[in-house]
């Protein structure tokens, strides 16, 4: 590993441990849609990928072709990506992963004979990027790196979420590990039909569940730990002054701790309150298995590949009905806006955003009246079932997710 790379890795680690020690709420939590197309990309929609920004950390969900280009067009910093969660191994969700890894991990096409490449020594026990995905994700990455003869300067690891009928151990490929691949990739087994806490630190955890699609597919739930309650300084400062208590104590109170003053008075900080919960689904016609994890999510991102829009979508055939469109959509492993709305209501989601649209629904609804009419109608179909307004994702759209209001 080059000196620069080592310094960067150390920097990342010390920043991480400092953050974990202080455990504040994330300054902000934001989703940026990098690609919102299903199957075929178009001039207005790229293949699937979205970035979740947790403060300054960036996690990616899916990585379709040309995700790197989309990142460059967005405000998301590619070098900040620490984790990549793959929902399923369909190409439109994973074809962008290898070029992105080469980009983040200081990749190159090799060194001429007789010259030593600084990438030859890599600390594989400290992966810079962690990838999570279903069976086949590890083999896909390893195979792609091997046959493109790609060298990487920084290490990665792949953790696989194994279904009960998958092999529970092994790598699903006979190729030896790439020299940048950590040997510490886990094969994560289900517990009661889900994969609980596949990642956890003091501020946030991720769980996952299988969702039904035409191939094995995963939905993810990201849960922020509880966060400090709102503190009213007027309630505490006179007491601290009266007892000559150092003002630093306010920091402990802010974290929800109780503090005993010199005269025996005990001050209680405001109770901590729930953090944010996000449910990010891959392609699906039935995500029921994730319900126990996703209840009361602050945000649900659900696909809505096809819709029946008579009188609005000029490509509607006269013989199409809502039922026939839904049946065809389900048979291909996908959902309609109404199905997304029903699921959002079922889990009590606070906000629903639709994603993953057929190429016939252009994603330039911010500047094109015709597209706006169609996307507004798609949102309205979901809203009928969901019970409140539903947004449709557009490439490079960003959404801030506010903390849930504290209970009255
Ligand atoms: Zn898809
Ligand atoms: Zn798919």
TrEMBL record:
Pfam families: Anti-Pycsar_Apyc1. Its cofactor is Zn(2+). Keywords: Endonuclease, Hydrolase, Metal-binding, Nuclease, tRNA processing, Zinc. GO terms for cellular component: nucleus. Signal peptide: none annotated. InterPro entries: RibonucZ/Hydroxyglut_hydro, RNase_Z/BN. GO terms for molecular function: 3'-tRNA processing endoribonuclease activity; metal ion binding. SUPFAM superfamilies: Metallo-hydrolase/oxidoreductase. Homodimer. This is Beta-lactamase-like protein. It comes from Roridomyces roridus.
């Amino acid at each position: 590993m080059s000196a620069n790379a080592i310094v960067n890795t150390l920097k990342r680690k010390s920043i991480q441990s400092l953050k974990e020690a202080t455990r504040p709420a994330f300054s902000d939590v934001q989703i940026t849609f990098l690609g919102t197309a299903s199957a075929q990309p178009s001039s207005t929609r790229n293949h699937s990928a979205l970035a979740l920004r947790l403060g300054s950390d960036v996690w990616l969900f899916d990585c379709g072709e040309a995700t790197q280009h989309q990142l460059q067009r967005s405000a998301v910093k590619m070098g900040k990506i620490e984790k990549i969660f793959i929902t399923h191994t369909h190409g439109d969700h994973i074809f962008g992963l290898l070029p992105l890894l080469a980009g983040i991990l200081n990749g190159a096409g090799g060194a001429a004979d007789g010259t030593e490449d600084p990438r030859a020594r890599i600390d594989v026990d400290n992966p810079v990027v962690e990838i999570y995905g279903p069976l086949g994700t590890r083999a896909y990455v390893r195979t792609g790196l091997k046959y493109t003869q790609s060298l990487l300067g920084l290490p990665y690891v792949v953790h696989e979420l194994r279904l009960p009928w998958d092999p529970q151990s092994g790598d699903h490929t006979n190729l030896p590990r790439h020299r940048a691949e950590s040997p510490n990739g886990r094969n994560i087994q289900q517990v009661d039909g889900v994969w609980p806490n596949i990642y956890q630190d003091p501020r946030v955890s991720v769980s996952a569940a299988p969702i039904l699609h035409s191939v094995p597919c995963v939905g993810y739930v990201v849960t922020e730990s509880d966060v400090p309650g709102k503190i009213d300084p007027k309630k505490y400062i006179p007491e601290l002054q009266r007892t000559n208590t150092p003002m630093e104590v306010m920091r402990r109170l802010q974290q929800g701790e109780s503090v005993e003053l010199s005269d025996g008075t005990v001050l209680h900080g405001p109770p901590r309150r729930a953090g944010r919960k996000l449910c990010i689904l891959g392609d699906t016609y039935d995500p029921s298995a994730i319900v126990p994890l996703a209840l009361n999510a602050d945000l649900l991102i659900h696909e809505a590949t096809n819709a029946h829009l008579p009188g609005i979508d000029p490509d509607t055939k006269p013989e199409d009905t809502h039922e026939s469109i839904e049946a065809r959509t389900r048979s291909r492993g996908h959902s309609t806006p109404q199905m997304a709305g029903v699921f959002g209501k079922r889990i009590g989601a606070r906000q629903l955003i639709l994603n993953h649209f057929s190429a016939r629904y252009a994603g330039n609804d911010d500047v094109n009246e015709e597209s706006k009419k169609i996307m507004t109608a798609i949102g309205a179909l979901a809203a009928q079932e969901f019970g409140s307004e539903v947004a449709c994702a557009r490439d490079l759209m960003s959404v801030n997710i506010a903390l849930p209001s504290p209970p009255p």
